Amino acid sequence: MTLPILLNAAGKKLTEEDRIELLRGLGSEFAIVKAFLPRSQRPLPFPSDGNYDKEKWQEMGKAMGAAARVGDQVQITRVEIEPNRLVLDINGGLRGKRGSWKDHVSIGMSGPVSTSTRVDQPQNGTSVAGTTIEIIFPEGVPGLKADDVKRILKPVLEFDKESATENYVETLPEPVQQAIKAKKVIVGMDRDQVLLAMGKPRHKERSVKDGSELEDWVYGDPPGKVTFVTFENSKVSKVKEAYADIGGSTATPLPPR
């Protein structure tokens, strides 16, 4: 899909409006990882035709390991526009350092050579690290839009939310996949997986028991079935269903799944 993008952009000069649109359309965007994404001491080269050297990426990642696994969510935290390349920091870039709340967005317009923007790294507690991708345009960066760049990166990053969700689900263990498709919760799921299966709960309640942090999510309204999902730390430890009457009281709970 990248070749038509480049053909359509051929001869179109990158304007100041294009620069602003790229910064705003790419900065802080989330994506799901589709291929091995290594950390490296140098930016990962990614030709604008999308035919990147997978073996070279593997080699570059041997010393520092993976920045993120297939199915992980990452965020573009900095965008630089240079004459012949777009440089994208992922989760803080090569340093992988989390920003503070003061670092929200900074846009610099320093003329035709380089333009950049920086946003905070996501504070979602995941284990993904930082890396940097450079998209190389041998003939110079043409008049592209943010959506064009997202399509160029499609071999490694999925920005479309629906497709990204499908790709993520496919990386999960089979029992979890089946539970999500059936809109059920099973022990061992994390919060993101429960949200995919059941959506947002109508009520949350936190507590501490024997030194462990517990959080209950409640689904359903009386009269009818009410589902209680208990998280211990970050994983589901218990699922309980009961039938509640109009007043809110519940009958004998069904056996935990």
Structure description:
- The chain has 257 residues and is of the alpha+beta class.
- It folds into 2 domains: 2-160, no CATH class; 172-244, 2-Layer Sandwich (Beta-lactamase Inhibitory Protein, Chain:B, domain 1).
- Helices cover 23% and strands 31% of the residues.
- It is built from 7 helices and 14 strands.
- It has helices spanning 2-9, 16-26, 54-61, 146-152, 161-170, 174-181, 191-198, and strands at 30-33, 37-38, 44-47, 66-68, 73-82, 85-90, 106-109, 115-118, 131-136, 157-158, 203-209, 212-219, 224-232, 235-244.
- Strands 1, 3, 5, 6, 7, 8, 9 and 10 form an 8-stranded mixed β-sheet that branches. Strands 11-12-13-14 form a 4-stranded antiparallel β-sheet, with no helix packed on it. It has a two-stranded antiparallel ribbon with strand order 2-4.
- α2 crosses α4 (146-152).
- It is elongated.
- 29% of the residues are buried.
- Residues 97-114, 119-126 and 248-257 have low confidence and may be disordered.
